[in-house]
Amino acid sequence: MKICIQPVGDVDDEILKFLKKKLGDVFGACEILPKMDIPTYAYNFNRGQFNSTLILKSLPKVCDIVLGVAEVDIYADNLNFVFGEAELLGKRALISLARLRPEIYGLPPNKDILKIRALKEAMHEIGHVLGLTHCENKRCVMSFSNSIIDVDLKDWKYCEKCLKKLRDRGIYLKI
After folding, report:
1. For the chain, first and last CA: distance in Å?
2. Do 27 and 21 contact (CB within 8 A), yes or no?
3. What are phi and psi of 87, to 5 degrees?
4. I need a labelling partner for 1 at 20 to 30 A (CA). Which of 32, 71, 122, 132 fits?
5. What is the Cα–Cα distance from 35 to 9, expressed in whole angstroms?
6. 40: Cβ–Cβ under 8 A, 6 or more apart, which residues?
7. pLDDT tens digits, residue range 19-37?
8. 134-159 average pLDDT score
9. Does 147 score more than 90 pLDDT?
10. DSSP character for 15?
């Protein structure tokens, strides 16, 4: 399985390289695509945020899974914000680093925290693309995150129950 990371706008290169390494280790192959512009039509002036669904739909379908990575604040439907969004059993997923950064919560910048949070959200949204829904196990990466506290509580890996669902679909990961 090949994962392609699609930078959407200017994205921290260190985070992209970290995701490439970790996702490549898990899924087998990963590459970083050339940066694409953030679709201007996805910006909601009333909210001061970008619509994640519109960005998601703008991602190219060039690999088995395309993971868009953006730095802008995103929202979906009637939610105040989202950390990411994905096409269930589709080809595309999107994460935003904006609300994963410690400094948005009044803390000093910390690349190590940002990297692990980005990995958790990437694994979560890729899990949706692979057909996984939200898991009731709060430690599983497929657990729903309503806040950064929820992100920090969970692991970056799928629980045994979620791994079994993937294996039942013929998807074997190196976790």
Report:
1. 14
2. no
3. -90, 110
4. 71
5. 6
6. none
7. 999 999 999 999 999 999 9
8. 97
9. yes
10. H
Token pair for 33: 């695509």
Q: Are 97 and 70 in contact (CB under 8 A)?
A: yes
Catalytic residue at 125? Answer: yes
Given the residues 85, 87, 121, 125, select the one marked as catalytic.
125
CB 85 within 8 A of CB 145: no
Structural domain spans, the chain = 2-168
Annotate 92-144 with DSSP letters as a single string: EEEEESGGGSGGGGTSPP-HHHHHHHHHHHHHHHHHHHTT----S-TTSTTS-
Q: Which residues pair with 82 in a beta bridge?
A: 74
Does the pTM of the predicted model rise above 0.85?
A: yes
Per-residue tokens: 47: 């909210």
DSSP 26-76: HHSEEEEPPPBPPPGGGEETTTTEEEHHHHHHHS---SSEEEEEE-S-EE-
Q: At 86, which helix (H) or strand (E)?
A: strand 84-86
Cα separation, 78 vs 43, in Å, equals 15
Token digits of residue 56: 């998601």
pLDDT at 45 over 90: yes
**What value does the mean pLDDT take over residues 159-175?**
94
Helix (H, G, I), strand (E, B) or coil at 167: helix
